[in-house]
TrEMBL record:
It comes from Phoenix dactylifera (Date palm). This is Syntaxin-52-like. The gene is LOC120112761.
Amino acid sequence: MASSSDSWLWELNEASRLANDISAMISERGSLPPSGPDIQHHTSSIRRKITILGTRLDSLESLLSKLPSKQPISDKELHKCQDMLSNLRSKAKTDGF
């Protein structure tokens, strides 16, 4: 059975993949016509994914705060997880979402 930290890392990787997907979609938006149903649908999809990413990041933060009580992990490992989450949040803000 996977440990709590393993499932947390899996969730972080999923959030990271979602952030990369959003970045790619934002880049693709430039190749679409400036108006019309295609750009509206594309923009809607981006907004939906940004909302999902924000929810996942908040959930990861909450889970991280509970992780030491569910499974003993070292302070070093906890700080590493906190740094990874902080870096992903920063990437999302830097990329404009």
